[in-house]
Structures are given as structure tokens and as C-alpha cells.
Amino acid sequence: MGCGTSVATEKQGETLEQAMKAAVLIQRWYRRYMARLEMRRRYTWNIFQSIEYAGEQDQLQLSSFFTFMLDNFTQLNGNGPDLISQLLDPVVDPWLDRETCYNLIHVPESYTGPRLSFPLSVADTNALLSAFKDQQTLHARYVLQLLYETKKLLKQMPNIVHLSTSYYKEITICGDLHGRLDDLLLIFYKNGLPSAETPYVFNGDFVDRGKKSVEVVILLFAFLLLYPDYMHLNRGNHEDHIMNLRYGFTKEVMQKYKTHGREILQLFQDVFSLLPIATVIDGKILIVHGGISDQTDLDFLSSIERHKVKSALRFPRCSLEHLDISQSCRQTKRTRSTDSSRPSSSRSQNKNQRTPNTRKKRCRLSRQDSAASTSSSSSSSSSSSSLCSPRTPSCLSPHAFPSSPCMPYSVNVLQVPFLDSLSSIPLPSPSQHEQEWKQIVDILWSDPKIQDGCSPNTFRGGGCYFGPDVTQRLLLQHGLQLLIRSHECKQEGYEFCHNGKVITIFSASNYYEEGSNRGAYVKLGRELVPRFYQYQVSRTTRKLTLTQRVRAAEGSALRALKEKLFAHRSELMVGFQQYDQNNTGRVSVCEWALVLESVLRLDLPWRTLRPHLARLAPDGSLEYQSCFEDMGPGIPLPQVTPNLAETLFRYRTDIEIIFNIIDKDHSGLISIEEFRQTWRLFSAHLGVAIDDSAIDDLARSIDFNKDGSIDFTEFLEAFRVVHKLDSKDQQLHEKMDGEKRTG
Amino acid sequence: MAENSKSAEATVLNTKILKKLKGAFQAFDTKSDNTVDIKEIGTIFYSLGFFPTQADLQKFTSEVEDERSGYIHWDRFLPAMTKVLLEDKFPPIADELLLQAFEVLDIEKRGYLKPEELTNYMTKEGEPFTQEEMDEMLTAFTDEEKKHIYYKDVIPHLTLERKM
């Protein structure tokens, strides 16, 4: 409208320009903010990974502790340590192989869950799927029957299963599930249930860590029984009863199946060891759970008896037979196995004949008493494994022992008790059994690395790091073109390495924390070109923004890290004090980082994390005591020596497991006597000098009700061992679950 | 005089900053071979406190990229970054300007923006957001009840600095 227009336009122009500038500004700020968030996410990821791998290294000490416990455990409450011995040193229980084992179990009318009928039909697997979606539990009778049938089926399978795409359209390969039922259901939903058109390979680690391991593995086995030609399972390093003790599967089974848990676990142990260890597609694609080593020999692997390797953490018997000592041993062993129905009596028979300290001394390869011959026998495999155990008890430092479960070849001569004297036996070259063990452990535990070569996997404590040259050699040797493996969590659910010759596929989304990573599966058609499908289970992620997810993940990663610091307090303090001769309480940031690196051996950006972990003095130096503050809420501690508190803290997972085993009726309570004994054993094994009276005082002070029993959850909490935050998280998840269902 | 102090300052800066640069670089060096994906360059810049525009990033990347491999090697990254630092190429933006920016967009001076309005600006003006970026921003900053973006509350989130 006349001159008004030009003015308006000019003003408009100005406004537009301003708006554009404003927009750019906001965008830049926002992108910067998101980038910083991404950085934090990375660091958080690093923390989780490092701690996870470091944690796996601790496996060895739990395993050798159980061995130790077996040998020295005195009877508690008249019940022998049968769960432990059953778990570690199973007597072949013929009862479990007979059909009547599950037929005798009565399923009450009131049970509304699936009632399976064998051979399984699609109706059964559908019933299982809907039951598990509705949070129902399968009755123990059916679990046992399912496992028994699975065992029968697996016995017929070879170690390496060969598949051909000419029969199928496309094969789907999935990685670690770790008890995440939601991920499995999501895969089935997106990709289809296992069938002739949709064959699957599940590449190990079905159990542990997640809360629904039982459901996951039941579904997998059910489909295996239903379609043995279209469903293929590889063994993972968590299909291992000792790993299960630590990482949650054992606990989950015992909680869900209070009466029959032990039998179920026993069968799982057998079934796990019978799982095939590798799958080959079209003679071109090798699928294993972990990886390979420079010693991997597929032909040798095809020939061995895979079920003999029950656990990577039970070192193969330096068999006394092999050392040609044990006529008497064999005899006692035979007595034991036939007398299977009364394991405790044969144990006590052996016990009478040996002095309590014998085993302990043998572990340290020193002089023996004369009652040696029979002492060499009982709990046969456990004793030989302690012979071979690289772990020496007297170390709090986490790295006093060789980090891979390998044979102690450095000991050239073994002093072994034989009748009244000691015999010197030259250590035999690796026996057949040891070689078999190593080959399988390599397959289940190895990780690829960037540099050429093959070195022991120090992070995990088992298997190797294998380089591109090792991959190349193996692939060439067997005419293969690709290696598909799992075992490592990847942010995108999958990753290529070794010039595209190796694929890592990981199927548990949100593995470390809500929003931490995607899960993925890979499909291969006849042309054998891999296609990836990603997903992320989002029960709560949809409600959380990236910011909230990163904050949550970061919070929990930092907490875990702080716990690590606290658990290694004395060693760290020693380290710090070396740089602080004048006792100022301060060191430089560099020195602080150096100490952390060398004690904790976690490959993390310490300087960047410093603001979360320690305080600076005004002059820029670091007050190292501040690392140990702020461990979260807790009941004030009873007076204990710092040593004890720290030990408790560091081994809390192990302690929790042990308590759970002792607490047979899952009441959450153990008797004072049981507590005392466990403590004495544990500290003796660790070589921590803890006064008997200190333990007694501790026990008495923990018995809050003065009724002679200890609620060990309270006990653990009292030492800030279990974070109260864990229960808060639980409530949060439950709340969100509720919201999800109603909302 | 000024010359001398500037170069002295530069050397001092370099040791501390060098560590920072190395740290930031290594966080994205996932293959442990001293290279990072070019896509991460923006993140690295931001994490170090810089405010490049997308155009700035493009330019920087094209100068240091390893022959269109998609990767940048530390050996080329470091001198280029040093130059950026010394020339103060991407100076930080003051917090106050951010508030003003929002106020410019909030024509009616209500104290908030509606999601549609913000979307319009962010995806059409300046260096437009992708749909993903927009979704994330909206999810993070929209008030649940009123469904508005109260930018005065948002700004502290965006500007919150953690001393690295």
C-alpha cells in the first residue's frame, strides 16, 4: 500500500535476516551441546567396557575359591556342601538321564502355564511365547523334560555343524542375548519365528546378566526341538556353569525353581557342554562365539569330545592317571561314582583319612604327610585343578597370577606325594585333554585385535587376541571367506574388522544401560552377502531423551568406577604416597592418573574423568583422598578394620554368590555359624589376615535381631556393598513398566 | 613486546591444550591407529569448546582429510587444529547472545516458542537441522504440560559447562 509497503518490506527483510542469524546461533549452540553429550556417551561406553572385561578376569579367583572351599569345607548344619560339589564336581547322576526324573514331578491343577507335550509342536512353542510375554514361568517338570530331550538331540550333533543356503532362502544369525527376552521377541517379531523359511543361528551367550535367561534359553531349546534342521545354536562362553554362578543364571534358576533348581542346573550344565561349538555355512562362512587363535585347528576340533570341557574355568586335569601315580586314586574314584546316591558318605569316608591341611599344602607344592596316597584322591578333579591353578592365594593384588587360564609351563618339575615320599615328576607336555580344552576356550573367548599376531587375552583371562593375519591364515587354510562372531558389545549392534573378513554381531540392545547400544542380526542369502538389521528395545527409551539416557548411563558408569576405586583403596593409597613423600595429601593430576592406570589397569581417559572422581586443590594439584569419598548412602558401619571393609567390598559379588548358595531355602538368612565359617575360609583363601575375633565381633554386630541369623542383604548394605540405588532402580523400572502397560 | 608474549603464551597453551586435543582425538580413534572418522570432527570441535558452523567444518575437513578416505590422521589434524587455536577461528558465543537469539524468534514476546514455530526456524533457516536433530531437540525441551518451549529454561541446559 503505497510507500508503506517499501518500508514494511525493508523491515521484513531486516527481520528475516535477524531471524536467520538467530536460527544459526541456536543451531550452533544446540549442535555443540549434542556433541558434548556424544563425548560423554563415548567415555561412559569406555568405562563400561573396561570394567566388564576386568570383571571377567576375576573369574579365576572365584573358581579356585570354590575348589578350595570344596576341599576344606566342614559340614554345615549336617548338610554337606552338596550344592557346591554338585555344581563343581558333578557325580554322574544316572537318575537325571532317565525319563522318570521328570515324570515323577506332579504338576498341580492350579498351574496355568504351558503344559508341553513331546515331541513339541507349534502349539507348544506358541504357548511358551505367550506365557513368557505374560510373565509366567514354565513348570519345573516341563523344564526338566525339555532339557532332557534337548540333551538327547544335542548328543547326536557334531562339534561343527555344516549348513547350506541351497536349502534356505536366507539364514539369520544372531549374537549375544544375555537373558534379554525383549530383544529375542523383537527379533522374532521383526524377522519371523524360526521355520523352514526363516532358519536361525544363535551364536552363544543366551544366559547371564539379563533377568530372563531362563525364558530365553527355554525358547531357544524349544525351537531347536521343534525344528532341528532350521534352528542352530552355538555354545558361548557363558554357557558354562561356573560363569553362571557369577553372572546371574544360577541365581535366576534357583529363585524361579526353588524345589528343583539343582536338578535343573545339573541338566543345564550337561546341555551347555553338548552345544556345538561352531557352524559353517556353505563351506565358506565360519560362525563361532568368540574367535580363533593361531592354534585353532578345525579338523582337530571336529574330532574331540566337546562335552568333556564343562567349563573354561575348570582347568583340565593334570590327570593323575597321566602322571601315572594313581592306582589308589582310580579305585577311590570308582567307589565314589558308583556310590552316587550317597555322595556325602563317601566324602566323609575320604575326609577321615586325610588331615585338613594336606590339600592346602599341596596347592603350594611342598612337603606332604604320609597319609598322602588317599589324600591325593578324593574330590579328584578339584584337587588336580588346584595343582594346575595358576592362582596363589596370598595376593590381594589383582594381577599376581597369569591372566589367562593357561597351564603353568614355567614349573618344570612337580613334587607330588606318592605313598611315603615325594616323587619328582617332569611336567608332561600338554596332554590331549589340555589341547582340547585350549582349542575350545580359544573359540569361545577370543577377541579380534587390530595388530597382527596372536597374544593371550589378558583382559578376559581366557582365549587370545587374534590379528588380521591369524584370520587370513585360517580362512585360507579352510577355504573360508568370512568369520562371524559375537562376544563383544558394539554400539551399532555389529561391526566389521580385519578388512571385512570378520563380523561381530551382538543382539542385546541397551546392554550396559538404557540407550547404550543397538542390537542387530545379520542375514545371509545364497550370494553370501551379509545384510544387517538393527533395533533397540525401548521400554523406557522412548520416554527418555538422549540427554537423559546419557546422564543415566554416565551416572551408573561413574558409580561403577568409583566402586572400583574404593575396592582398591589400599593399593592406590600406597601408589599415591610414593609420589607424596612429604605427606601433603596431594599429587599432580598426571601422577594421579599414572597410579590409577597401574593399579586398576583400566584403559580409560582418567584426566577427562577427573572432575567426576577427585577434587583439585586451589593450586591445581589433586587431593587424592577425595577419590574415596562419596560412595553413596549407607548405614553407618560397625567398627571394622579398613582391610576388612575393603575386602568385603572388592569381593562382594563373590560373597553374594556364596551366600546365595549357602542359603538353600532362599530365606535371605544364614546362621551365624555358617557366616563365620564362610568368612574364615574366604579370608584364609585370600590370604587376608583377619582376626578370628574380628570376624566374631562382626558377626555379632550384624546380627541385628540377636536371633542367631544374619540377613545378608542388610549385611552387604551395611558395608555400602550393595548400593541402595539398586533397589531404587528396581522401583523405577517397575514404575515405568506399569506406565507402559497402562499408557 | 606483544609478539613475544603472544608466542610464549602460545607455547604454554600448547602443552595443556595438546593433551586436551589428544584426549578428544583419542576418544574417537576407535581403531587405535591415530585416525578418526571425518564425521566426528564436528563433535571434537564442539567438545573442545569451539563453535564452528557447518560450513566451517566442511572447509576444515576438506583441508585435512586423507584423500577422501573418510578419515583424518592425527598428523594432519594437529597442525590444522593448532592453526585454528592460534587464529581463534571459531570463537565461543556468549550466553547472552543465545537469549537474544531466542527473543528474536519469539516475535510476540510470549516467553516461549511453539514446537511448530521452532521446527520451522530450525529446519528451514540457517544451517537446517535434520529430522532426527529436530525430534531430539523437541523431545528434550518441550514442556510436557503446556507443550511449549520455554527458552529461558532451556538456555541453562545448553550452556552448562563442565570444566574438562
UniProtKB/TrEMBL annotation, chain A:
Protein name as it appears in the record: Serine/threonine-protein phosphatase with EF-hands
Catalytic activity: O-phospho-L-threonyl-[protein] + H2O = L-threonyl-[protein] + phosphate; O-phospho-L-seryl-[protein] + H2O = L-seryl-[protein] + phosphate
Residues covered by the EF-hand domain: 567-602, 650-685, 690-725
Main enzyme class: hydrolase
Cofactor: Mg(2+); Mn(2+)
GO molecular function: calcium ion binding; iron ion binding; manganese ion binding; protein serine/threonine phosphatase activity
InterPro entries linked to this entry: Calcineurin-like_PHP, EF-hand-dom_pair, EF_Hand_1_Ca_BS, EF_hand_dom, IQ_motif_EF-hand-BS, Metallo-depent_PP-like, PPP_dom, PPP_phosphatase
The UniProt record lists the keyword Calcium: yes
Top-level taxon: Eukaryota
CDD domains: EFh (cd00051), IQCD (cd23767)
The species this protein was found in: Oreochromis niloticus (Nile tilapia)
Keyword Manganese in annotation: yes
Biased composition (Low complexity): 338-355, 370-388
Similarity comment: Belongs to the PPP phosphatase family.
Keyword annotations from UniProtKB, A to Z: Calcium, Hydrolase, Magnesium, Manganese, Metal-binding, Protein phosphatase, Repeat
One of the GO BP terms on file: detection of stimulus involved in sensory perception
Region ranges (Disordered): 329-388
EC number: 3.1.3.16
A Pfam family reported for this protein in Swiss-Prot or TrEMBL: IQ
Automatic annotation (TrEMBL), chain B:
SUPFAM superfamilies associated with the record: EF-hand
Molecular function per GO: calcium ion binding
Pfam family, one: EF-hand_7
EF-hand domain residues: 16-51, 93-128
Top-level taxon of the source organism: Eukaryota
GO cellular component: organelle
InterPro entries for this protein: EF-hand-dom_pair, EF_hand_dom
Keyword terms: Repeat
PANTHER family from the UniProt entry: DYNEIN REGULATORY COMPLEX PROTEIN 8
Name of the protein described by the UniProt record: EF-hand calcium binding domain 2
Organism of this sequence: Oreochromis niloticus (Nile tilapia)
